[in-house]
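stuck on this chain:
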Amino acid sequence: MNNKEKLLEVKNLRVEFGKKNKKFVAVNDVSFDIYKGETFGLVGESGSGKTTIGRAIIRINPAASGEVIYKGKKISGQIDKELDKELTREIQMIFQDPMASLNERAKVDYIVSEGLYNLKNYGSEEERKKKVEQALLDVGLLPEFASRFPHEFSGGQRQRIGIARVLVMEPELVIADEPISALDVSIRAQVINLLDELQKKKGLTYMFIAHDLSVVRFISDRIAVIHKGKIVELAESEALFANPLHPYTRSLLSAIPTPNPRVERNKVIEVYEPEKSHYDYDKNPPHWQEVEPGHFLLANERELTECKIK
């Protein structure tokens, strides 16, 4: 990855909610890079801070400390109007719930065009309509669907409309926040294949947020595992599955269902118990370390030594 261009850098990001003595730390000291053209997977259970990180990158959630750097420019905190406009176009988000993320009172034409209207990113009305038409075609929908309302579509079609709304802005980085979790199982593969095709066709970079490791393995180049606001392990997809080092990662992997009923019946699911899984954290707290090239782990010196022995 050293010869690849860094598109996004997240450095020691911390996100808090609440005030003074009622503060809740949702994301704590998180760091990672996303390279141009890759799919970066972020995995963890509900409430682990995955979506909060995505929303901090697109500036919905303010960062309490740390930095978010996009194309070498700091984008967290106060930024000027021109950079804000640039970011609004270049970083887009696909939301989890296709039912809630679309305006029920607006036609598809307006929903897909909303970003164009906000940034005045078109010359004439004819050009705008052509952009909407092309975005709908790109996601496998007919241009005549532009005159319909969201309630006339299925969940999978609504998510495609959400993706078209992103594509019409011609972004570079797309944050996909569990884009398939609210869809029927039969539709999920279609949406993932669509995202894969669009990435190849348009050179997109994805940050793919999910709780299902098996799905993330299929689409991601690298995967970061997050637990209670901290990234505990980061590696290339196949390396993570072949050699999971953190006990929480092993716990997630052991919970993936197996198609073979005999194997599934005899499978032992690992339960992650922090108090039993780690050593001397009171005296020797963990820190972020590179165990092998490209494979990072949150561990203290004793745990790191044991990893290297294995």
The chain has a mean pLDDT of 91. The radius of gyration is 21 Å. The chain has twelve helices and twelve strands. The chain has one domain: 6-243.
